Amino acid sequence: MFFVIILGVWHAIIGSLLFTFNWQSKPEPDNYWLWIDRDVFIALGSFYVVAHIILIIWFVVVPFGHRRRMRTKDKIYRELLHRYNYQHQHSSSTTQSDSNYLF
């Protein structure tokens, strides 16, 4: 949305400059204001393309980074859960065998 606003403001400025300094219905190709408009068009177009490339890269890198961290956390959680279950099974089997000797 910001880009559209910038383009609208720019075209209002350059349009008024072209109309003020050139009363012809068709501007000449070597007009100073037309060259400025072309340069600004190339600069804003380049900025637009680069911004979208960066945005696409960001959309790919950040979610995959979150997925990688979640996989690491899941692996650690599974190891802790496995260790807890292993200790719990051995402690309960020891308790049962001791209780069998008490009777």
Key features?
103 residues; mainly alpha; single chain; 88% helix
Task: Tell me what you see in this structure.
With 103 residues, this protein is mostly helical. The protein has one domain (2-92). It contains 2 helices and no strands. The protein has helices at 2-21, 32-102. The longest helix has 71 residues, at 32-102. The N and C termini lie far apart (80 Å). The model has no long low-confidence stretch (mean pLDDT 78). Keywords: Membrane, Transmembrane, Transmembrane helix. The chain crosses the membrane at residues 42-65.
Give me the secondary-structure topology.
Blueprint: H1 2-21, H2 32-102
Helix pairs in contact: 1-2
Keywords: Membrane, Transmembrane, Transmembrane helix
Transmembrane segments: 42-65
Query: How many structural domains?
Result: 1
Give a count of the beta strands, DSSP E runs of length 2 or more.
0
Low-confidence stretches: none
Our Rg estimate from Cα atoms comes to: 35 Å
**SS class:** mainly alpha
Give average pLDDT, whole number: 78
Largest sheet: none
Helicity level, as a percent range?
over 70%
- Give the distance, in angstroms, between the N- and C-terminal Cα atoms: 80 Å
Q: How are helices and strands ordered from N to C?
A: HH
Give the strand content.
under 5%
- Net shape: rod-shaped
**What's the assembly state of these chains?**
single chain
Tell me the number of helical segments per DSSP (H or I, 4 or more residues long).
Answer: 2
Keywords: Membrane, Transmembrane, Transmembrane helix
Transmembrane segments: 42-65
